[in-house]
Design brief:
Order of helices and strands of chain B: HHHH
Shape of chain B: flat
Largest interface: A-B, 41 and 30 residues
Number of helices of chain B: 4
Helix content of chain B: 40-55%
CATH architecture of chain A: Alpha-Beta Barrel
Radius of gyration of chain A: 18 Å
Radius of gyration of chain B: 19 Å
Shape of chain A: globular
Oligomer: heterodimer
CATH superfamily of chain A: Metal-dependent hydrolases
Bound molecules: zinc ion
Strand content of chain B: under 5%
Number of helices of chain A: 9
Structural class of chain B: mainly alpha
């Protein structure tokens, strides 16, 4: 069995047992975007503590299972309706950007496609541009997704500082995947019951658009979701007869290639393989 | 009722970048999934219809969309999933007022 990466999972909402099961399934690394905490936080101090959890506690909890933990920082779209609070949180983010597991700004985006959400999205782009951070983008769910993804792509294209190869548009589905890929962006498919993509549909999408600049994630969070959704996607790829190389590209090489552009990135130390040669791709202990 | 002889797949699928399963194998592997999900939809429509005030739901825009989605299933376009996604999507207005970057 080969290693995989879950590039979008909210471990703060998962138990330590989940880390253990993910380790059994050969999870090498995860990245955890800053998101909603199951309730609206009342103060910027609440986000300060959350960012400490993302940059300090979670990487240590993951390391117990030899899973590398990375994260993204922002105020999520769901709470961005409060522009004053959002600005306080955005002002605090630079304090954490140098932490070794921080990959960039995310998951910023839209939720209900409101004017305030768009304002706060643009202000995150302004922040990211200052230090050329990688950007991870949440697209809305259900009936809001198509419109919201179009609006997000409009804002990205309207900002000359945005480099598409440093942006990943997440939660793409059949009707939005090409909006991301045609714009030169990376994209993520989220395997999530009812409201997003099933593993089978995600493989259908791969069959239609190919394996470049695309990855799969579980988004495991407060809702009914499965932290082992990426291994399920791998099983579906195998069931269709797709090659190990194609599977590995989507669940390992692609997320790693995207992350490697991060300002704080440190290459993983090589791990000796069975025949004694170094295999850096499968290294998975510590930072 | 005999099934209308209408192509439910389509021979001229747009060029895929990866090799999909041969059609007959895909049908073997996914027939029971399709059957089960069609039954789910049928049972949901029956459930709505059994409840009090069912007549009022006939004109509900969600029911209209479900019927339109079923029409899409009967078509032979190669992108039925994408079409159904768009059917259930809000309209996008290209002229929306964007916030401007602080360059
Ligand atoms: Zn998320």
């Amino acid at each position: 069995m080969s290693f995989y990466i879950d590039p979008h999972i909210h471990m703060i909402s998962r138990t330590t047992d989940d880390y253990q099961r993910m380790a059994y399934a050969q999870c090498a690394a995860v990245s955890e975007p800053a998101f909603w905490a199951g309730f609206d936080r009342g103060t910027a101090a609440g986000f300060h503590d959350y960012f400490r959890s993302l940059t300090d506690f979670e990487p240590r909890r993951a390391a117990q299972f030899h899973i590398r933990h990375y994260c993204w920082l922002c105020i999520n779209a769901k709470e961005a309706e409060n522009v004053t609070l959002s600005r306080e949180v955005i002002a605090m983010i630079p304090e954490f950007l140098h932490m070794p597991n921080v990959l960039g700004i995310g998951e910023i985006g839209l939720n209900k496609n409101t004017r305030n959400e768009a304002t706060v999205f643009q202000e995150h782009l302004d922040l990211a541009a200052k230090t050329d951070e990688l950007i991870l983008i949440h697209t809305p769910h259900l009936e809001d997704k198509y419109k919201g993804t179009r609006m997000i792509v409009d804002m990205l294209k309207n900002d000359p500082r945005v480099k598409p190869h440093r942006v990943c548009i997440d939660h793409v589905e059949e009707h939005t995947v090409r909006l991301a890929l045609d714009g030169g962006f990376w994209c993520g498919m989220t395997l999530y019951p009812t409201t997003k993509c099933t593993p089978a549909r995600a493989v259908d999408i791969i069959e239609m658009v190919g394996t470049d600049r695309i990855m799969a994630n579980s988004a495991g969070d407060w809702g009914k979701s499965d932290p082992l959704a990426v291994p399920e996607f791998i099983q579906e790829m195998k069931r269709r007869g797709h090659s190990e190389a194609d599977i590995r590209k989507v669940v390992y090489d692609n997320p790693l290639a995207f992350w490697r552009q991060a300002n704080n990135w440190k290459e993983w130390p090589p791990e000796p393989s069975r025949n004694g040669t170094a295999t850096p791709q499968t290294a998975k202990a510590g930072y | 009722m005999p099934l209308k002889k209408r192509s439910l797949t389509r021979a001229t699928y747009p060029l895929a970048t990866m090799t999909p399963l041969p059609a007959a194998r895909a049908l073997d592997q996914y027939f029971l999934d399709a059957r089960s999900r069609l039954l789910d939809v049928a049972a949901i429509l029956d459930r709505v219809g059994r409840g009090g005030g069912a007549e009022a739901t006939v004109a509900d825009p969600r029911m209209t969309r479900i019927r339109a989605a079923i029409e899409i299933l009967l078509g032979d376009n190669p992108n039925r999933a994408e079409q159904i996604q768009k059917l259930f999507s809000l309209e996008y207005d290209a002229g929306w007022v964007r916030p401007q970057p602080r360059l």
